[in-house]
Amino acid sequence: MNKATRLSEIEDRIKKIKKALSKLGEMRPGSMSEQFNVCGSPGCRCKDAQNPKRHGPYYQVSYVHRGRSSSQFIRREFVAATRRQLANYKAFRELTEEWVGLALEHAKLKLELAKEQLLGTDR
Questions:
Q1: C-alpha span between 46 and 67 (Å, rounded)
Q2: Which end of the chain is less enclosed by CB atoms within 10 A, N or C?
Q3: How far, in Å, CA of 83 to CA of 88, rounded?
Q4: How far is residue 75's CA from residue 63's CA, in Å, rounded to a whole number?
Q5: How far apart are CA 82 and CA 88, in angstroms?
Q6: What is the pLDDT of residues 9-56, one digit of tens each?
Q7: In terms of pTM, does the model score above 0.85?
C-alpha cells in the first residue's frame, strides 16, 4: 500500500473516531464495586453466629482524577446510569488512544511524503 492511500485511510478512521466521540453520553472515570458491611448493633442479622447476613450491597465508585483518588457511594437507583457513564469513559479512553496513535502515524507519513517530494524520489 502506498503512503498516500494509507494517509487517506488514517484520515477516514479519524473522522469515524470523532463521530463516535461526539455520540458518547455522560461519562465518569473509575470502577464500581459492591460493598457488604457488618454493623455495630448486637443481635443484628449480620452478627448471627449460625448464618450471618451482611448489610448490602452498597455500590461504590473509585477513581483517580488529577492525581487524587476518590470514592463515592452510589444509590441503588443510580447504579445502571453510573455503569453506562463508566462504560462511556472507557470507550472515550480507547477512542482517544487510537486517535493519538493514528495522528502520530499520519504525521510521520506526511513528513516522509514531503521529504520524498523534495528529493524527487518515489519510494
A1: 37
A2: N
A3: 9
A4: 17
A5: 10
A6: 999 999 999 999 999 999 999 999 999 999 888 889 998 888 889 999
A7: no
